[in-house]
Amino acid sequence: MLSACAPTLGGVSPPAGVAVGFNRQQITPLVVEGAADRTTGRIVTADDPVRIASISKLIVALGVMRMVEAGQLDLDRDVSDYLGWTLRNPHAPQQPLTLRLLLSHRAGLRDAADYVIPLGDSVRARLSRKTAWVPPAPGGVYPFEYGNINFPVIASVMETVSGERFDRLMTRQVFAPLGIDACLNWSGCSDAAVARAVVLYRSTGEVARDDMGGARPGCIVVAADDGSCDLTDYALGTNGSLFSPQGGVRISANGLARIGQMLLRGGDDFLTAASIAELARPVGEDTSGLPFFCRYGLAVQTLGGGGAGCDDALFADGRSRIGHAGEAYGLRSGLWLDMERGTGMAYFLTGVPDRTSVEEGGFADEERAFVARAEAAIGAQRK
């Protein structure tokens, strides 16, 4: 394992970075370095939870498939049947929208209407804005449009059907069965996990998220416009955005690795192998000029083999892997599995500069370099 210390550079601790490798039986630390909290100087560990960004989408998809296997949800049923109101793209008002379309970012939704919906507002009201929608292509097929807004809709469906608040549902359906101390927006994590929270810093050194000083946040959702944060009267299914299903999972690198191990082992009685294959199977071919998402299934991305114009190379061996990337608040993260070889890597890196344009591609240079160091650690351990 590479250094776990956090030497200062010009008086500032380097960004926290953790990478672990795993196979079906074992998790191995590869790179663990930097400060989880620069104020206290606390050094990061592979068990420290961090806001993992869009890998949350894959984790939410696991909860969806658990409900599908239980007969509570159907990937191809009109979600209006679950929501209790009619959800339609105004450009195609006769075409039903399904969980399959939402999970694969092919429901015609986009983030222009904003996916952060405060307490007191609703998904239904937000999606009444025409700016939230793109028209279908000829033949009625929606183009791939990566949009965070899909996941508040999915969370709303899960709440309505289960009769359970989304954060609690995910704890019961996903984190508890897998034995992982993880949560959404710090709701459901243990006190010990809260005390080990990784503070997210931007590349400028500015605090971005989760500088909590070891205490739980006073408000675990996006507060109402008047500043209130009382969930007593919250109506289930009206605002699946509250617990940030698109990016708000707090989980450690070791916790991600345990999810990866479950997938490598074919489900471990948590999911069936058929459900895992359903998640991973790419939906459609057209990625609408977004070369990073060359092949995308149900909240599961495939790296490698995307053909001309694809720019998703991350690992030196160029082998195909499934998983998901994350990016938010100066963090880059990834959970990637080589299903054929039965191996994987989970990582996060903080303090990465924000992209300045979509043309920069998916993986940051700092992220690629960090993964290369993790790969070198694997090579060194094999000698």
Short description:
Helices cover 25% and strands 15% of the residues. The radius of gyration is 20 Å and the shape is globular. The protein has 383 residues and is of the alpha+beta class.
Give a verbal description of the structure:
Helix 1 (about 55-70) runs parallel beside helix 5 and helix 1 packs across helix 6 (about 165-180). With about 375 residues, the chain is of the alpha+beta class. The chain has a domain at about 15-50 and about 180-210 and about 245-380: Beta-lactamase. About 50% of the residues are buried. It has helices at about 55-70, 80-85, 100-105, 125, 150-160, 165-180, 190-195, 255-265, 275-280, 365-380; strands spanning about 15-25, 25-35, 35, 40-45, 50, 185, 200, 205-210, 250, 295, 300-305, 320-330, 330-340, 345-350. It has ten helices and 14 strands. The mean pLDDT is about 95. A hairpin with a 4-residue loop joins strand 13 (about 330-340) and strand 14. The strands form four sheets. It has a seven-stranded antiparallel sheet, with helices on both faces. The protein has a three-stranded antiparallel sheet with strand order 5-9-6. A two-stranded antiparallel sheet has the order 3-4. It is globular, with a radius of gyration of 20 Å.
